Amino acid sequence: MQAMTDIHFMNTYHRIFGGFTEMMAPYLMASNNSPIKVKNLQKYYSQLNPEISLIPQLLSNDAAGMLHFASLLSDLGFNKINWNLGCPYPFVTKKQRGSGLLPFPHRIDEILEHIIPHVKAKLSIKIRLGLNDKNEIIPIIPILNKYPLAEVIIHPRTAAQLYGGTTDKAFFAEVFPQIKHPVIYNGDIIRKEQVSEMEKEFKGIKGYMIGRGAFINPFITNQVNGMEFTRSEALAKYREFYFELHHHYKSKSVNTLGFLSHMKELWSYFSQSFEKGDSYFFALRSINDATVFEQTVENIFKTATLTY
Ligand SMILES: Cc1cc2nc3c(=O)[nH]c(=O)nc-3n(C[C@H](O)[C@H](O)[C@H](O)COP(=O)(O)O)c2cc1C
User: Fold this and answer.
1) What is the pTM of this model?
2) Which atom of ligand 1 is the closest one to the Cα of 157?
């Protein structure tokens, strides 16, 4: 998740909770005139715990730029790369990137035709149902089926929904068997029971991708793998996770407001882990002093009740 799941977040999550078979890096804008330098990419990725299987992600509608980045990433040792056809934000979609490409299946076809024969790494695709209409995915399926892809990750919302409303599981159930590649479901998974229900509902599904759920219920991977914790064990684990992030971002920030603004963004999700979470978030949101913020968070871990 752009601006949230950076390398430090991934390393910390892996050390304290673990359980993800793969993690996806926030997208790289892969155009031919991108200012990103190989040296910086290499330095950035080298900080990742080597036990983590990381999938880099490209956001682009520019076949030459994608080819350039995909080759760089293959040379850095990544053997799977994801193409983001799901980003729903208008500043991305109006340039026909992310979900903005979904109404143009022929452009998706052209880009795949251009890059697939030349990319060493396997290509994974992340997709929404459409930009404005869920049926936009229908003509895209035979195109995806023409190429050798590693997998297709579907977030069954349209981009117009952003993150509102509900995911369309019934429509997902109808379309996913038409895809000949392994399919991964993504969207609103917070509890392990949702995964068990989907295991029954979506026969043949390859797996699940979890985004916000890893913030709202950081125990999700442990719970799916059958681990249980007492209340005090869970709070201690969560506290350790949180303060590892807190101290890291504090040490890297150039000013308090920037640091607190990042922590508040994280707390917009972490607060939902707790009963009466809205009131905790409301309190934290108004704090502009790092010490007071830290003490308020300490109090939450001492007194709060976890929801999941
Ligand atoms: C703040 C934020 C940043 C995101 N950044 C990315 C991104 O860089 N690449 C991507 O594929 N999805 C991104 N997503 C979408 C998530 O990966 C996921 O598809 C979406 O949130 C639905 O799954 P969830 O309900 O498990 O979060 C982002 C979502 C949020 C809320």
Assistant:
1) 0.97
2) 22
State the closest ligand 1 atom to the C-alpha of 26, by its place in the atom list counted from 1.
Answer: 8
**From the CA of 295, how far away is ligand 1's center (Å)?**
30
* DSSP letter for each residue of the chain: -TTTS-HHHHHHHHHHT---S-EEPPPEE--TT----HHHHHHHHHTS-TTS-EE-EEE-S-HHHHHHHHHHHHHTT--EEEEEE----HHHHTTT-GGGGTT-HHHHHHHHHHHGGG-SSEEEEEEEEESS-GGGHHHHHHHHHHS-EEEEEEEEEEGGGTT-S---HHHHHHHGGG--S-EEEES---SHHHHHHHHHHSTT--EEE-STHHHH-TTHHHHHTT----HHHHHHHHHHHHHHHHHHHHHH-SSHHHHHHHHHHHHHHHGGGBTTHHHHHHHHHT---HHHHHHHHHHHHHH--B--
Minimum CA distance residue for ligand 1 atom 18: 211
How does pLDDT run across 114-152, given as a tens digit for each residue? 999 999 999 999 999 999 999 999 999 999 999 999 999
pLDDT surpasses 90 at 212: yes
